[in-house]
Write a structure and sequence with these properties.
The complex is a heterodimer of chains A (about 550) and B (about 130).
Chain A: H1 7-12, H2 17-47, H3 52-57, H4 64-75, H5 78-91, H6 96-104, H7 106-120, H8 125-130, H9 135-169, H10 174-225, H11 230-241, H12 258-274, H13 279-282, H14 291-322, H15 325-331, H16 338-346, H17 353-394, H18 401-425, H19 431-445, H20 447-455, H21 461-480, H22 507-523, H23 531-544
Helix pairs in contact in A: 2-10, 2-17, 4-10, 4-14, 5-9, 5-14, 5-19, 6-12, 6-14, 7-14, 7-23, 9-10, 9-17, 9-18, 9-19, 9-21, 10-14, 10-17, 10-18, 11-14, 12-19, 12-22, 14-16, 16-17, 17-18, 19-21, 19-22, 20-21, 20-22, 21-22
Chain B: H1 3-6, H2 32-37, H3 39-72, H4 74-77, E1 80-82, E2 85-86, H5 87-127
Antiparallel strand pairs in B: 1-2
Classes of the chains: A mainly alpha (about 550), B mainly alpha (about 130).
């Protein structure tokens, strides 16, 4: 292995021409093994899926630890693995905010949401609201916001998948990129329609173990290169970044002016308040038998996810030090491929066997990550469509369980098709920044209603509708008018400019608006005559677990 | 198994002769308003709220302090602690540490103070059916 295999060579050709085919074979083999194994699990789980509780909630048969792993698998997405590593490798310290916000957010879920939700709901977030508010309008609103949040989140995963394919196949792989996205979409639909929640949960457990193992391996190899000295690693990253000490200090990405500083606050707020409003995370609390098990699963998740995000420091700064920002941006403008490039580097560099093997392993892990997360999202949104919109709003509760599950499966196919289409178009954006938008929508549209429903006696149906639709419409509109969508070369539509809202993340405006509308809408409406009685029932059920499904 | 924990709080002991002394939960559990206004339920609610609410305010403030300092107190955050490790990094790692500690603390509190009350109340509600 010659030290001559430099970073710059890797920059020009992410994969040396000679090694490319052999890498590809290895990656395809590893990935096929994962897909085959998980599809096997899915078929097995599908045979045990009989009723709606099995399909939506995995029969509520998972233990706290199993669900903790599955939550981690559902949560540590391509955005975390590829996006954060990329953001740190390019912007240094500012990328680290994602790791911190994504983790601290779990405390909201732990202290306020997980247990009461498990106690009082059945399959979806809207079940809890339907206890005390007018069922049909509230389910329509919650179902709509569930689907919108999930689609934003799906888009981020598809962008990650596209970036990986481009890395592995080079610039000529545009056709291949499309095919891989189609493949990812197909496999995720298979997971959900065949295996339901049981199959999806096992896929997430397997993926969580793989992701933690892969990240730990790269972290150890990186730290070993710097003699287990974090300070040396940071120093080398700062030197290689070309930004010097500023790379290790806050402000490189968000400190330019007053607007970008506000954007940082906006992002920070969205991250910490978004998690407890994410539909695919909320439905995971229904897969355990009791509220106590739900609490245990969140505690396990906090431990696992925390350990993972600590390792993103080594991944991100390691990529900056060893791969270098030039090579990273040459491969993907937003840094989404920093982690696999780092794996190749610590394995011995481009062209070496070790590098090829590690690149293949980490790419396969990243694909597994994407597959597991998109499956969770597809399940959450199709469950909400079938259970909330179809069974309870359109058919007014006159469906059979069989019909409801069939509807969910059909919805999964449609959502799969939508995300494939979106994934083919969006690829310039950073996956972590995209996911942060999903967090902002969740924090604006879902979290206020969940908290008010559980803890505020005076909350009304009008308050819920104002909050959900107000939070949803304001956050999505502000995203459309933001620099993420137009007005600059990195935007979704670089050729157009209608970027009238200066912040990349809408949270700072739309989250307080969602809370304020819920409060105002409630106070301006007359409470239903049985309001107090219904809230008493919800409060007793949510705290004691009396009559829990 | 958890009844050992409950011994420290006499009013919630699930069994024992003290029962008739307090405003008791009505026989038909469908009347959730009466359950909600019972003393036992009040204690359970406050065991959760008096712990979770202040702690939520605390960790959200602590996190926002970190976000704001990163933004508007660059000079302070850039102070070197040792080698290439600055206050900003230490502050970020401290957020990890406090998250782990709060999660552990809440789990301990819930097992000691909330779960026994839940068990007792739920058992009585179900017995009333």
């Amino acid at each position: 292995m010659t030290p001559r295999t430099t970073v710059l060579t890797a920059a020009a050709h992410p994969l040396a021409a000679g090694g490319a085919s052999e890498h590809r074979t290895l990656i395809i083999t590893l990935f096929s093994v994962f897909v085959a194994a998980t599809l096997g699990i899915t078929v097995w789980a599908g045979r045990q899926t009989r009723d709606a509780t099995d399909f939506y909630a995995g029969g509520r048969s998972f233990t706290g630890f199993q669900n903790g792993l599955a939550i981690s698998g559902d949560y540590m997405s391509a955005a975390s693995f590829l996006g954060i590593a990329g953001a740190i490798s390019l912007y240094g310290y500012d990328g680290f905010l994602y790791s911190i916000g994504f983790l601290v957010a779990w405390l909201v879920a732990l202290l306020l949401v997980a247990e009461p939700l498990r106690n009082s709901g059945r399959f979806t977030m809207a079940d809890v609201l339907a206890h005390r508010l007018k069922q049909r309008p509230v389910r329509t609103a919650a179902g709509t916001s569930t689907i919108v949040v999930s689609i934003f989140y799906l888009l981020a995963q598809m962008v990650g998948a596209g970036a990986l394919v481009a890395l592995l196949l080079g610039a000529t792989g545009e056709g291949a990129r499309r095919w891989i996205i189609v493949l990812v979409g197909l496999v995720m639909v298979l997971y959900v329609t065949i295996g339901g929640m049981k199959g999806t949960t096992w896929v997430q457990i397997v993926k969580a173990v793989m992701l933690i193992a892969g990240t730990l391996l790269i972290t150890l190899l990186v730290l070993n290169k710097f003699h287990w000295n974090l300070s040396t690693l940071l120093g080398r990253a700062a030197d290689a970044s070309g930004k010097g000490r500023a790379f290790l200090e806050p402000g490189l990405q968000y400190g330019k002016d007053g607007t970008s500083k506000l954007n940082f606050v906006s992002l920070g707020l969205a991250l910490v308040l978004g998690t407890a409003g994410l539909p695919h995370i909320l439905i995971r609390f229904y897969t355990v038998p009791t509220a106590r098990a739900a609490r245990k699963s969140v505690n396990w998740a906090i431990g696992i996810i925390g350990a993972f995000y600590l390792m993103t420091i080594a991944l991100g700064f390691g990529a900056a030090a060893l791969v270098g920002p030039k090579a990273i941006t040459a491969s993907n403008e937003s840094g989404n491929t920093a982690a696999p490039l780092l794996a190749q580097e610590v394995g011995g560099g481009a062209g070496s066997t070790g590098g090829a093997i590690l690149l293949a392993v980490i790419s396969a892990v990243a694909f597994a990550t994407i597959l597991a997360v998109v499956a969770g999202l597809t399940l959450a949104s199709s469950a909400s469509f079938a259970h909330d919109l179809w069974a309870n709003v359109i058919r007014k509760g006159r469906t059979s369980e069989k019909e409801e599950i069939l509807t969910a499966k059909l919805a999964a196919v449609v959502i799969g098709a939508v995300s494939i289409a979106l994934g083919i178009f969006a690829h310039r954006l950073n996956a972590a920044a995209l996911v942060a938008l999903a967090f902002a929508v969740a924090a604006s549209a879902n979290l206020p209603t969940i908290l008010y429903s559980l803890f505020w006696k005076r909350f009304t149906t009008q308050g819920a509708l104002w909050s959900i639709y107000g939070g949803l419409i304001s956050s999505v509109t502000l995203v459309i008018l933001s620099p993420v969508v137009s007005g600059n070369p990195k935007a979704l539509f670089p050729g157009m400019s209608f970027d009238y809202f200066p912040l990349g993340n809408p949270g700072l405006v739309s989250i307080p608006l969602g809370f304020a509308l819920g409060w105002l809408g409630s106070l301006l409406s007359k409470p239903a005559p049985d309001q107090e009685k219904k809230y008493a029932e919800l409060e007793v059920r949510s705290l004691t677990g009396y009559g829990a499904h | 198994m958890d009844s050992e924990e409950a011994v420290g709080i006499p009013p919630t002991a699930p069994d024992g002769p003290v029962e008739p002394a307090r405003p008791t939960i009505p026989a038909q559990p469908d009347n959730f308003l009466d359950v909600q206004s019972s003393a036992e339920f009040g204690e359970l609610r406050s065991a959760h709220r008096s712990f979770a609410f202040p702690l939520t305010v605390a960790f959200v403030s602590w996190y926002l302090l970190y976000v704001l300092l990163s933004n508007y107190a660059g000079g302070f955050m850039d102070t070197v602690v040792v080698g290439n490790i600055n206050i900003a990094l230490v502050f970020g790692l401290a957020q990890f540490l406090t998250t782990f500690l709060i999660a552990w603390w809440y789990a301990r509190h819930a097992e000691a103070k909330i779960d026994p009350k839940v068990e007792a109340l739920k058992a009585r509600l179900e017995a009333g059916e």
